[in-house]
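---------- Forwarded message ----------

FYI, see the BHLH domain-containing protein record below. Original note from H. follows.
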Amino acid sequence: MPASQSPTNPADRPRLSDAQKKENHIRSEQKRREAIREGFDRLASIVPGMEGQGRSEAVVLEATVKYLREQIVERNRIIADAQARGVDTTGWELPDHTLSACEAQLKRAQEEEQQNGSRPKD
């Protein structure tokens, strides 16, 4: 069967109305927001001190960056201790950009929250 006669050919399907397009967009946006919410909920469940708190995304990111910093400091301490004991720690180091990427994400989230917080409500 030629592609032009295929029932899945986009030209053969009816066009969506503006209302249908709008509804599809709304559903897609709701799914996107839910995925983000679930991601922040997962972070909040992992990061100590975030359980059961009302929180903004910026607060969760800030706590996550703080927690990661603490973990990196502890990891570096363990590596230094291992090296002092003569253990070969080649390949144990984190890439330099790891923490700076977390800090950049935190800064963007804080700036966005400040912009959203200062915007007048409709």
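H. also flagged this: The two ends are 54 Å apart (CA to CA).
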